[in-house]
Amino acid sequence: MLELKHNQYEIGGLEVREICEEFGSPLYIYDTAKMESQYKRLLEAFKGTKLKINYACKALSNINVLRFFHQLGAGLDTVSIQEVELGLKAGFLPEDIIYTPNGVSMEEINKAVAHGVRINIDNLSILEQFGAKYGGSYPVCIRLNPHIMAGGNSKISVGHIDSKFGISIHQTRHLERLVKSLNLKVTGVHMHTGSDILDVDTFLVGAKLLFEVAADFKDLGYIDFGSGFKVPYKQDDIATNVEELGAKMTAMFHEFCAEYGRELELEFEPGKFLVSESGTFCCKVNGLKQTTATVFAQVDTGMNHLIRPMFYDAYHHIENISNPQGTKRVYTVVGYICETDTFASDRQIREVRQGDILAFQNAGAYCFTMANNYNSRFKPAEVLVHKGEAKLITRRQNLEDLLHNQIELEW
């Protein structure tokens, strides 16, 4: 992650300016050391349980990142058949991949079954179709909606009563009748309420509800609590206390397992928690523009590369790595897209000059994976910093990439 040392910004011991000089800008840089420390922090927080951490690869799906988490011993959380196939290609065993789609066709679910991965279903209608086809021959996990409003933004709150995700806890009797009549083998129950959840008690309330439902299924092998752990975005920002959560939930889980009659596996699906702080997005200042009210820092990127500030009103701390000791001045940082794409408004940043490199922190999760080619702009490159080396893991796009899937007609 980005650190100021000896009057220069470094990632994994390497100077960021040198990385940008080698690979150009805009550029995503990821630090495997931070990914590993976050992964081990969760292992430590929930020690004493039979724990499985499934990396939510929608956060950052580069195959090298998947292989890194596989090497650490993680499983994989996937939400599409394409992510399933990426995970298999990265070396994950089918049983280490959980597939939790929403609103997909039975055709896609059948493909996941053919791959042998764990299936997590959140729709009674789809569950009925699944049971009619497979009965008890293929195990299934059930995703429940606990009707808890949680998360840092309405777009990422997915466990409330109006959410499209999960089977309502008020439909459990219908669920149980389906399971019995179709002879389904339910080996897991699942819940995910949202992202950026700060309050430990929110997790515990959800856990209590899930335990109550889980007690009615006698073939369980695991209980999956999704994720949503909040990470800090600003200096002195409050984040989820995973150590407190680990201690309290571990005690609850042991108590449930004792009542259930055997030890189950405790599973989580963190994405942002594992990779957000590992990522830094670097871009170059194309120019400065002063109006009667605002000083704009215009950069060589836009919402096509980093949409979170526009889509979620997300805050990303910005450092001027070219002028680490400069006087702080107020800037509005904007992109080069043909509509308003503002990364930061009236933000204090070390004095910005044309040609300077600005670094956006917390750029490891839901940044490159949400990038696009709006305005026919090329997607940026990605670099992985691992054990003192910066390695290119995605090359910068070119015009041939934009045209690759287009079919040119004869006119």
Ranges where pLDDT stays below 50 over 5 or more residues in a row are 149-160
Number of helices: 12
Q: Can you tell me the CATH architecture of the largest domain? A: Alpha-Beta Barrel
Structural class: alpha/beta
Helical coverage, percent range:
25-40%
Q: Which homologous superfamily in CATH is the superfamily of the largest domain?
A: Alanine racemase
Structure, briefly:
This protein is an alpha/beta fold. Helices cover 29% and strands 26% of the residues.
Describe this structure in words.
The chain is of the alpha/beta class and 411 residues long. The protein folds into two domains: 2-29 and 276-403, Lyase, Ornithine Decarboxylase, Chain A, domain 1 (Beta Barrel); 32-275, TIM Barrel, CATH 3.20.20. The protein is 29% helix and 26% strand. The chain has helices spanning 16-23, 32-45, 63-72, 81-89, 106-115, 124-134, 172-182, 200-214, 242-260, 272-275, 308-312, 399-403, and strands spanning 2-5, 8-11, 14-15, 27-31, 51-56, 75-78, 97-99, 118-121, 140-145, 167-168, 186-191, 222-224, 265-268, 279-290, 295-299, 318-320, 328-334, 342-350, 357-360, 381-386, 389-394. The strands form three sheets. Strands 4, 14, 15, 16, 17, 18, 19, 20 and 21 form a nine-stranded mixed beta sheet that branches. The protein has an eight-stranded parallel β-barrel with strand order 5-6-7-8-9-11-12-13, surrounded by six helices. Strand 11, helix 8 and strand 12 form a beta-alpha-beta unit. The longest helix has 19 residues, at 242-260.
